[in-house]
Design brief:
This protein is mainly alpha-helical. It has 18 helices and six strands. The chain has helices at 2-9, 72-80, 90-105, 109-134, 139-144, 147-156, 158-166, 172-184, 190-217, 227-239, 243-266, 270-287, 292-304, 311-356, 366-376, 386-395, 402-412, 422-438; strands spanning 37-40, 43-48, 53-58, 63-66, 384-385, 419-420. α4 (109-134) runs antiparallel to α6. The longest helix is centred in the last third of the chain and has 46 residues, at 311-356.
């Protein structure tokens, strides 16, 4: 099947019969421009070069294939060919994270508080479920096989994230990633970030405590053994963790939760979202890491049933440190990784869109290109210096990493004389057009090795 797909992808390439050629024979005299002699085999897999088409053939190494130069139309079709994907690309997901950070920053206070309570409600219900299942294991079995209750928590706690992501709600741990990315991308201010975090954190606490009080405590669900000893033990264990241990356990917990959020956004269908979000939460919950919002349900529920500790001790020795660790794991590790790994492509699109807007819907004729060239050539000397290039980009209001501007300049200034002539500038605009139209990953737009993570 895969071989058939490859043949379809290259069905417009004209080649001679590979079984009748002798190795090394080139019918065009081996001029190295209009044709290529490639050692190999049965089926060709092609890739576009800047001016020619190369063929890479896999097989017994006894045959030679001659590939003719393709027309511009054929080259465009090949550049546009992509293997279909069932997921959203990560650069698209990163862009959506930025958009959502702006939306979350402008939710009115009452609605934001309500959505935070809704998320706390879902977490509280998931905690009641996991305590019912794990707490139902006999004490002697729990002691002999301590991984059993952890596995049950891992299996079923993801329901909280499912409900929040699909039904709705504002979860502080997820927002630690959204708002950090938005802040770094200059989509939200530090005050908007703090506004969102403070309201959501308080409302998550309110929703969690209210849910476990009304539906986990007043209902007497865990009065009897073995559930009673289980929930009180969980609360006491969390409260008595060493501060540095609680902080460190919180970092991977929210890193996994935010990875779960990204997986959910990557999937295009409901099944993909549910499965993708399940695995990271299973890993964090089964491993015993610390999640601030989950602790807002587990610990109060245990204290309500008589755990030997206090809310004050929990607040200072566990909750605050877990919140900080969650911010580090979700906001800094996952959020910044997501931004710096995938925002480059977004920056490329922004620069391309701004520069191509200069020519608009007009044809790429020499006359039109010279008009755009003149708008960059501010001193009118027939070349574009680097300072003029940078100033023109800045005047268009484009936000792009300095490495991107440097890369565009270095790859456009082909003769290395420190300025762009008309031909070099025209070639840059044409490559920008082809990149946006066909998705061609030309070297001119690639992140330099020194800037890669």
């Amino acid at each position: 099947m895969f071989r058939q797909m490859e043949r379809q992808a290259v069905n417009f390439i004209h080649s001679v019969d590979v079984d009748t050629m002798e190795s090394g024979n080139n019918s065009n005299g081996g001029n190295g421009h209009n044709s290529y002699s490639v050692q190999s085999c049965e089926v060709g897999v092609t890739r576009t070069a800047s001016s020619d088409i190369e063929a890479r053939i896999y097989g017994n190494g006894k045959s030679t294939v001659i590939i003719k130069e393709m027309s511009q139309d054929e080259r465009g079709k090949l550049a546009a060919f992509q293997i279909s994907s069932d997921i959203n690309a990560m650069d698209e997901v990163e862009k959506q994270v930025e958009k959502l950070s702006m939306k979350k920053a402008h939710i009115e206070p009452l609605k934001l508080f309500f959505l935070g309570c809704v998320a706390g409600w879902w977490v509280g219900l998931a905690v009641i479920l996991t305590v019912t299942l794990s707490g139902g294991i006999p004490v002697e079995v729990r002691n002999a096989w301590p991984m059993l209750p952890k596995m049950l928590v891992g299996f079923f706690f993801p329901t909280a994230i499912w409900f929040i992501m699909i039904f709705g709600g504002e979860l502080f741990t997820g927002n630690s990633m959204y708002m950090i990315v938005g802040f770094i991308a200059k989509r939200v201010t530090i005050w908007e970030l703090l506004y969102n975090w403070s309201f959501v954190l308080v409302s998550n606490f309110t929703g969690c405590v209210a849910t476990v009080y009304f539906f986990g405590y007043l209902t007497d669900l865990f009065v009897a053994e073995p559930a009673h000893s289980y929930i009180t033990h969980v609360a006491e264990y969390k409260i008595n963790l060493k501060p540095e241990v609680a902080f460190l356990r919180a970092i991977p917990a929210n890193a996994l939760v935010c990875t779960c959020v990204l997986f959910g956004m990557s999937a295009k269908d409901m099944t993909g979202k549910l499965v993708g979000m399940w695995f990271p939460i299973f890993v964090f919950a089964t491993s015993g890491f610390e999640h601030a919002i989950a602790n807002m349900a587990y610990v109060p529920l245990g204290l309500m049933y008589g755990a030997e500790a206090s809310y004050k001790k929990w607040l200072y020795q566990n909750l605050l440190l877990v919140i900080l660790g969650n911010i580090v794991g979700g906001g800094l590790i996952v959020g910044l990784s997501d931004y710096y790994l995938f925002d480059w492509t977004n920056a490329v699109h922004r620069v391309n869109a701004a520069m191509l807007s200069k020519i608009g819907n007009q044809e790429f004729t020499e006359e039109n290109l010279r008009k755009v060239f003149a708008s960059f050539d501010q001193d009118g000397n027939g070349t574009i210096e680097r300072s003029e290039f940078d100033q023109a980009i800045a005047d268009m209001g484009v936000k792009a990493p300095p490495e991107l501007i440097n890369t565009l300049w270095m790859n456009s200034d082909t003769d290395g004389n420190g300025c762009l002539d008309f031909d070099e500038f025209s070639d840059l605009l044409k490559k920008m057009r082809d990149f946006e139209k066909y998705g061609r990953d030309d070297v001119i737009f690639q992140r330099p090795a020194s800037a890669q993570g």
